[in-house]
C-alpha cells in the first residue's frame, strides 16, 4: 500500500481485501483478548469487594455485574468488528464479482432458449393438452371442450 492508510480503492481487489482482513485481524484479536482478560480480572475483583453499608442482600453482586458488563461488551464488540469485515468481504464478492458472471450466464441461457435450442434440462410448463392415458380413460367426454368457452 502507498502509505499506512487504506483507501476504498485498495479494497476493490480480492487480494487486497484478504490482506486488509488479515491485518485487521492481527490488530484486533490481541486487543479483544486483552479486553476480555481485563474484564475477567475486574469482574473477579469486583465480586470480592465487600458490600457497602446500606446494601440490600445481593445488591453487591448485582452492582459488580453491572459495572463489569461494559468491559465484556467491549471485547465482544471488537470481535464483532472482525466478523463484520468478513461479512463485508463475502458481500462484496457476491455483489460485485460474482453477480455480473451470474447475469451473463443467465443471459446466455435465455438466448439459447429463445433461439429454440432449449436444453432438455429446462422443461416448459404443461401445454394444456390432455395426456393420452387420460384421454383413453375418459373416452371422448372432454372432446369439444375449450378453455374459456
Task: Describe this structure as you would to a colleague.
The protein starts with 13 loop residues before the first helix and ends in an 11-residue tail after the last helix. Helices cover 66% and strands 0% of the residues. The radius of gyration is 33 Å and the shape is elongated. It contains 3 helices and no strands. 1% of the residues are buried. It is mainly α and 149 residues long. The longest helix is centred in the middle third of the chain and has 56 residues.
Notable characteristics:
149 residues, mainly alpha, 3 helices
Give me the secondary-structure topology.
Blueprint: H1 14-48, H2 59-114, H3 132-138
Helix pairs in contact: 1-2
* Major sheet description: none
N- to C-terminal separation? Answer: 73 Å
Number of strands: 0
| Helix proportion | 55-70%
Gyration radius from CA atoms, angstroms: 33 Å
Q: Which structural category do the helix and sheet elements fall into?
A: mainly alpha
Give me the strand/helix succession: HHH
Give the integer mean of the pLDDT values. Answer: 83
User: Low-confidence segments, ≥5 residues, pLDDT <50?
Assistant: none
Q: Helical region count? A: 3
Shape: elongated
Q: Provide the β-strand percentage band.
A: under 5%
Outline of this structure?
The chain is mainly alpha-helical and 149 residues long. The chain has helices spanning 14-48, 59-114, 132-138. The longest helix has 56 residues, at 59-114.
